[in-house]
Amino acid sequence: MRDRRYNPRMNAPVSELIELLSLERLEDDLFRGQSRDIGTKYVFGGQVLGQALSAAQATMTQPRAAHSLHAYFLRAGDIEAPIVYHVDRTRDGGSFSVRRVTAVQHGKVIFFCAASFQKEEPGAEHQLSMPEVPMPEDLEPPPAIPPERLAQLPTMVQRWLNRAGPFEFRHVYPRDELNPPKRPPYQQVWFRLAAPVGDSPELHRALLAYASDFHLLGTATFPHGISYYQPNVQMASLDHALWFHRSFRADDWLLYSIDSPSAQGARGLARGLIYDRNGRLVASTAQEGMIRVLPEAATR
Fold first, then answer.
1. Per-residue pLDDT tens digits for 35-50
2. CB-based burial of residue 269 (10 Å sphere; 0-12 exposed, 13-18 middle, 19+ buried)?
């Protein structure tokens, strides 16, 4: 197994992501976050999810862990402008707490979510078994795209594909996103943070919220032989749900097992189960998003 000791130069994207999730506190329940251009046209949805959860966690005054988050994306986020997060302390009960987070840019709400927290307590347990797939060490990292092929793509797509991101991914069934074949709507992807970080459970939950937006909606495009990188395809997250089941580390390998039960009306639905390498189900996700295929004349 390769050495994962911290290297500031090698892991600059990880340090940048940690900083991105560390919001500036303006008032008790008011926070400000910055954005990063990672090659997407607008603010990456996972960034807003992670920052909103970070804001909600920062208002907790009791030892309670987030167990669910339900969010709606209302407007595209501006990469060049900060995002202000207002947290409403909706309820603090005997066992559960609820926080409602509203994200604002340029005076308009772009996102809101509700997050629920629970104090630790015992109870009945069961889970679905992890799919039988190769371990991440037995899979190759995604190959680099040849420079001549990369040069033919739009500048935005080049930035997305050519960047060194904070997460590593290993696909069990790799797909050529630039020339996608038609496939059944499911996939399994191993992922982990590219460098080890501290032990804060709140940080690892915010990191998982960020990463949970990768690959999820794209699974709904598989049966149609299309992808986000094609100029006539428009895709955007509409909502996102995330449930935390068990403790985990985002800097150790996690398996994202995703399927898409339906696509219709220019929308697609995708669901995901996230396991640690020992087969423990640590989180579940669901997302519906817009998927439009435009006439070729419209893209010109």
1. 987 767 789 999 999 9
2. buried
Local confidence band at 161 (pLDDT 50, 70, 90 cut-offs) = low
CATH of the domain at 205: 2.40.160.210
Residue 210 lies in domain: 12-120+138-299
Catalytic residue among 51, 213, 251, 284: 213
Counting beta carbons within 10 angstroms of the beta carbon of residue 140, is it exposed (0 to 12), middle (13 to 18) or buried (19 or more)?
exposed
Kindly report the pTM of this predicted structure: 0.92
62 is catalytic: no
Is 237 labeled as catalytic in the residue annotation?
yes
How confident is residue 178, by pLDDT bands cut at 50, 70 and 90? confident
Q: How many domains is the chain built from?
A: 1
Does residue 126 fall inside a structural domain?
Answer: no
68-126 residue pLDDT tens: 999 999 999 999 999 999 999 999 999 999 999 999 999 999 999 999 999 999 999 99
Considering just the CA atoms, what is the radius of gyration of the chain in Å?
A: 19
User: Which member of 188, 230, 237, 284 is catalytic?
Assistant: 237
Active-site option among 35, 54, 57, 287: 287
Residue 34 bears catalytic tag:
no
Give the pLDDT of residue 297: 47
> Per the domain annotation, does 130 fall within a domain?
no
- 108-119 and 96-105 strand pairing: antiparallel
In a domain, 125, yes or no: no
Given a contact cutoff of 8 angstroms between Cβ atoms, the answer to whether 288 and 239 are in contact is yes
> Can you read off the two tokens belonging to residue 155?
């500048």
In-domain check, residue 4: no
